[in-house]
Specification:
There is one protein chain. Strand 3 and strand 4 form a beta hairpin. This protein is of the alpha+beta class. The relative contact order is 0.27. A two-stranded antiparallel sheet has the order 1-2. Strands 3-4 form a two-stranded antiparallel sheet. It has one domain. It is built from 1 helix and 4 strands.
């Protein structure tokens, strides 16, 4: 899957894993991006969208 949402532009973010001893190691937070068939302006297209945008889209329908 693509790492970027075509609707909101959400991409990979970076942070730290923090152990019990407070030692920090790098980690990534990836958005849950899925390929969906969506009707835009009367035509059906496949776009990469995150699940948050899917949820918002279903609220407006």
């Amino acid at each position: 899957m693509a790492g970027k949402c075509d609707v909101c532009g959400k991409t990979t973010q970076f942070g730290h894993n923090v152990s019990f001893s407070k030692r920090r190691t790098n980690r990534t937070f990836k958005p849950n991006v899925q390929r969906r068939k969506v009707t835009l302006d009367g035509e059906t297209r496949h776009i990469n969208m995150c699940t948050r945008c899917m949820r918002t889209l279903m609220k407006s329908v």
